[in-house]
Design brief:
Elements lengths: L1 H65 L1 H5 L13 H12 L2 H5 L15 E4 L3 E11 L8 E11 L6 H4 L9 E5 L4 E2 L12 E5 L15 E2 L11 E5 L4 E2 L12 E5 L7 E2 L7
Parallel strand pairs: 5-11, 7-9
Antiparallel strand pairs: 1-2, 2-3, 4-10, 6-8
């Protein structure tokens, strides 16, 4: 009988130890599981909020660009008041986002917490650039108050099109040619590869070893500089400059159709300038 009692006592001690071990494991695993779920939900919120803001920027930017010709030429009829200003762009983005962004977007400060620093409307001959940065509230306070994000829109306003002029024959005394605002040559073909460069991103450390399709070495762009020498830079297949800013005017061509007599001191493009 004594043996049986001792055996039961040992069984109780083993069972009690196993239960304690499971309790400790649960105390460690459950909080970790909850944290993973919260991070997953936060990731979904990041994607949803970013998508909504990007869509609002594109809706606003496209609307401004569509009125570009009217804004440049002072046409007032049918043009929304102030559409050529940054104030209009900010108000339009806020309108597209709606009140739900304040309640459920998770943005620090709601729509009022969006920063439009660096945005410009109808600058550099019709460029519309809308940039937004904002902070998202982290669901669990772990030393990280906000998570900073940003997105942007880049477009060129419509500048009009005169089919009769642009279809002028090359046999005319003063034919149509194509130029850029900062370019030093004129082009006969609007689809010339120098007017429509193919841009790609490369590491800053490798650019010195690369060559363009013309066999030229890439040098830092005089407009946007070489950047900090780390991270990525942007190059084109043809040309000899690398850029730290994807929106540099050295990459983004602002093409204008003019008469050859208006080309000033520009020379002919080596690819398409021959007559």
């Amino acid at each position: 009988m004594g043996y049986v009692i001792m055996n039961r006592s040992n069984n109780r001690r083993v069972s009690s130890g196993a239960a304690g071990s499971m309790t400790v494991e649960a105390a460690l695993v459950v909080p970790f599981f909850i944290l993973c779920v919260l991070n997953l939900l936060f990731g979904i919120q990041v994607v949803e909020t970013s998508s909504r803001i990007t869509a609002a920027l594109h809706e606003t930017g496209n609307a401004i660009c569509s009125y570009g010709y009217a804004i440049e030429h002072g046409a007032g009829e049918g043009v929304p008041a102030g559409i050529g200003s940054t104030v209009y762009a900010i108000s339009s983005v806020a309108g597209h986002l709606g009140d739900t962004m304040d309640r459920r977007g998770g943005i620090t400060g709601g729509r009022a917490g969006l920063s439009y620093l660096g945005s410009s409307v109808m600058s550099e001959g019709g460029i519309v650039r809308l940039s937004v940065t904002y902070g998202l509230k982290f669901p669990v306070k772990m030393g990280i108050r906000t998570y900073r994000l940003g997105t942007s829109y880049y477009g060129h306003a419509w500048v009009g099109y005169d089919g009769a002029v642009c279809s002028s024959s090359d046999t005319e005394e003063d034919p149509i040619v194509y130029v850029t605002r900062t370019g030093t040559v004129y082009h006969r073909d609007v689809s010339c590869r120098y007017l429509n460069p193919s841009t790609r991103s490369v590491s800053a450390g490798s650019v010195s070893n690369l060559r363009s399709k013309d066999g030229e070495i890439y040098h830092a762009c005089e407009l946007c500089g070489a950047g900090a020498g780390i991270g990525s830079v942007y190059i084109t297949d043809y040309g000899n400059r690398f850029h730290s800013d994807l929106y540099c005017s050295g990459i983004r061509r602002d093409i204008q159709a003019i008469h050859l007599s208006e080309a000033g001191g520009r020379g002919a493009c080596s690819v398409c300038g021959g007559w």
